[in-house]
User: Fold this.
Amino acid sequence: MAEYRTDLLIIGSGPAGYTAGIYAARAGVDTLIVAGAQKGGQLTLSHEVENFPGFVETQTGYGLMEKMQQQAKNKGVKVIDDEITEVDFYDRPFICCSAAGNAYVAQAVIIATGASVKWLGLPSEQKYIGHGVSSCATCDGFFYRHKDVAVIGGGNSAAEEALYLTGFVDKVYMIVRTHTLKAEHILQQRLHDSRKVTIIWNSVVDEVLGTEEPLEVTGLKVRHVKTDKIQYVNVAGVFVAIGHHPNTDLFRRYLRLDSGGYIITRNKSNATDIKGVYAAGDVCNPYRQAVIAAGCGARAALEAIRYL
Ligand SMILES: Cc1cc2nc3c(=O)[nH]c(=O)nc-3n(C[C@H](O)[C@H](O)[C@H](O)COP(=O)(O)OP(=O)(O)OC[C@H]3O[C@@H](n4cnc5c(N)ncnc54)[C@H](O)[C@@H]3O)c2cc1C
Assistant:
């Protein structure tokens, strides 16, 4: 158990957190990152990252995040493996307590805790994440050119993912639990108009099927919820689009959240309603791309530096 005092505390070690750290430390601000349970953030789940600028060769998400961490450390950022479990934003300096029993006392805080993907919860799904199972068509759709894929879900995100994928895949199966889509009418119309989309209604995924070496998805075992009839669907990629859970429960008491649970920041800024507290990355914006999270982290740091 220890007490850490710092000018700037960054909660989270994804692209937003590390980028904020690099900017703040370069400006001479004493900066500490609490990494959280998923050190390196969500990108560490990605097998291949091809859209983060500056890298000619395809990177693994883990490798890219290791580089960001090293860059932050080289600039003087302290990175601590711990998880914040409680915050007090009423008094100054701000005090954040952790799972390890540590207290982090800071003049300013950047929240970069991301938004967790809601997965189906199947062991076979977990096994193939990064090897055919994805949560992001924008990130991974490109790898499935001229192949057949499935999108799980029936809301706006699922419809958008499916429509995006029709740009390069041969066929998209949408697996929808009920007999209707929750997506907006215009999206439903576009799905209906697309010759590439087939909707499998009233159905859930029982298992993701695939090979061992190499680890690759080959299909889905799909069950009709009313008849229990099993159907096998041959696909090379599976996109789970049943939602995200922003990691904001800790901050609910102090900060305004929108209806989806995302932190509301001030217009054209990363400042929250509490002076000295900023939010950056997926925790406050819906784009869910590493480069955007990194950009948000840079802006939050610049604002925090000005505040300090
Ligand atoms: C499978 C997959 C593939 C992807 N592929 C791509 C891609 O190819 N290209 C792309 O641009 N984007 C991709 N993304 C999206 C990208 O990973 C995210 O947009 C990006 O990581 C968001 O960065 P962030 O820093 O906001 O949050 P995250 O990366 O989610 O990081 C959040 C951090 O907060 C920490 N944290 C959470 N709670 C606490 C707490 N209580 N205390 C301390 N720390 C905490 C976590 O440990 C984690 O380090 C992918 C996402 C997934 C899931």
